[in-house]
Amino acid sequence: MNTAAPKKPSTEVVKEASMLKQKVMIDENFTRLSTSNEDGRKVVSTFVPGNLNELLMCFDLDRNFPEINALQNGMRKKSGRLIMEAERNGQSEDVCTYVKSDLGMIEQGNIGPTGEKLPDPDVLLLSYTGCFTFMKWFELVREKYDCETIMLHVPYQADGSITQNMRDYVVKQLKDDVIPTLERVSGVKFDIDRLRGYLRQSQQAEDDLVWILQSAKNKPSPIDAFFGGVYYIGPIFTAFRGTEAATEYYQTLRGEIEQRLADGLGPVTPEGDFGKEKFRLVVEGTPNYTNFREFWKMLYDEGAVVVASSYTKVGGVYDLGFRHDPDNPLESLADYCLGCYTNLSLPARIKMLTNYIEDYQADGLLVNSVKSCNSFSAGQLLMLREIEKRTGKPGAFIETDLVDPRYFSAANVKNRLESYFQMLEQKNATQAA
Amino acid sequence: METFIGIDLGSTTTKAVVMDDNLQVLGRGITNSRSNYDVAAEVAKQEALLNARFHLFRQSLDGVSALDGRLDDFLDQLVRDFRLEQFLEQLIDLERTCIANADPERFGGETDALHEALAEVFRRLNKEAPDQFAPGAQRKSDFFRDIAGSRYLAVGETVANESSLSFDHVLNVYDRSIIDVENRISEESLSDKLLRALDRTFAAYDDLSAASDAVHAPIREVLETPLEETFVIGTGYGRARLPFSKDHIRSEILCHGLGAHVMYPDTSTVLDIGGQDTKAIQVDPAGIVENFQMNDRCAAGCGRYLGYIADEMNLGLHELGPLALKSTRNVRINSTCTVFAGAELRDRLSLGEAREDILAGLHRAIILRAMSILSRSGGIRDQFTFTGGVANNGAAVKALKQLIQENYGELTINIDPDSIYTGALGAATFAQRAVADGEVAQVEN
Q1: CATH: 3.30.450.20, 3.30.420.40, 3.40.50.300, 3.30.460.10. Which one for B265-415?
Q2: I need a labelling partner for B275 at 20 to 30 A (CA). Which of A163, B37, B133, B336 fits?
């Protein structure tokens, strides 16, 4: 008889070399940001989807990512307090919790997740406009810092493809507005060959990332492409894409995963090696960062591994073929912004997730919906229904939040997931019989 | 004999079903989930096993000529007498616990007066107890807490007034005692209690004394037949609290799906409205769950909503449906939020709307929410089976039938009078299958 309560995630986390390397990269960037203002380095704040990291590096700008600060605060259990601060200052309960975490942090002295001060930005670059909240977010930040703002308008891929017109339109903005403003703010002249050099690095890292994510097609999968995937996309979606450090990171990671494949091992979890793979899932939606490990544990305890996810594509859908191209630098930056997952239409997202279920031999789709995220969560129920219809595989739908700890109801999420896994088990057993 | 037991631990009530190896239901038991799921599971199981005994009594007494034509009446009387015995046993426990809690440390110089008052309260409660279990007596609930509680309050207030003692003191000792009493499981054997109840029943049928042996013999035989708990499966919200290993636990989705299939084999879509969950389940022709959806993050429009409304209106939960059915006009209630509904209810009352019309609107509001979860799960297919406690509420059923007709047309809608046991029935079926399929060779209980 088992009367023991389920064990909590252990505090000792198992880490591989790539994880340690990434931690150093992130910590160094926060430390660098903490002295940007006093050392006279110019700072840009920008968002993950459609970010122009390589271009920004051409102007020697330090890169600050408010979304990353919010999620890092979430993972470090600091976001709840910050969100309440923002609400005290008038932000509604329905506002995106990334925004509130950031605004609350700014109000409380702009001390970042690592405890180091974050810099005042010199320029805000909005390089993806599909998320309406991003615009409002930066309007509020601009009001606070009274700094330059660049808005790159990225047309929505309504018909599921990028046309030459759309590409030209983005390139024109890069030439006429984005680059001249960055030159003026930074005092650095734009050098296209420098950009080509960074893009060459990006390309290499992107090849490795795609190999890594597609390794989940193996059975058992050597990676978890959502919970583990969040770590894997860390460098390439943020301040490091285009750097040698990022390229090295992906080489190291690829080496580790090649070894896991050769050894027939499953993913690494915070509690060590994954047990027997029982269920393979595709996940749509964002992670919950305040209870990240607890949420992950609910899956790996049941033998569920995520083999593909849309979240690991929000900063670039590389597995559909896109690579940054040093030979066509500005055009490929345009294609990158136009192609990010959040800029895809619902039919395109449905097609992509349907293909994932088939290509990765998944048992079903899990949607983690965030009520306060209007751009990412809208239409998810419709997507679920349509994907179920096309694949014949059942979906599950849960609701949590990005970084507001008040909206993670562990008992309810667990209850639904357990029911879902038991249903899959029953179906699989019936099919096998 | 071998039995297979399913226990469904809900947020409001805990249900159990006992089956034999031919998948025949022998007994059903229900209790309030209280704050102690272990006790609730045990009590529900004991109640189901007791109910199974009565089922077996009926079979074994079938040929007894002295009971010809009145076997049902006789057994109904025996049930009432057994309930009375059970009630009196718990009343003794409550009295002892109250006396122990009425200590000088808390009540100082008033302790003696309080003890005297308690003795008087319990003397009166004991005296009136048989009336509560008389034929045709109406009780607001079958749970000890509810029956004893409501009478204790009424009698206690009278006694306190008569003895010039503060009613708060009388109330205070009750509040301290009831949870302990409720969480204690009777140590007396079932047989002893049943045989005492049988004496009472015989006293009610004076012409039966000559047939005493003819009646007693088969009853004793049933009582001597051990009901072996071959395999137990738990489900429901509190299943993680059950003292069972993983092999003995199934999710309520699987259990409701299978339970509905067992009740109505042509079921395709199941709606279960429980205390804090609304579940829409699609099953295949074998009762295997194909898909399901549940309410997320918010329990608006679940069974608890009706409980809250009943409290707000000072009605018993089972009185809501019949009152709402008297409605003659539609009142639209927009909020399925339990707390807001209270405000809307008071607002409507102040506007002069009739209670029954408002109640009908509230029932429609929760069904509207269920309809949205049903469409999320893939819609309603023929046949449709409605389960859970709310399926016993006529007004909810009426609203549901109407909305199905409007949205899906003519469908077969199944509602079993025992629909509250659907999850436990599914769990018991899983228990029987686990052994029959050789999934579990070893009896672990």
Answers
A1: 3.30.420.40
A2: B133
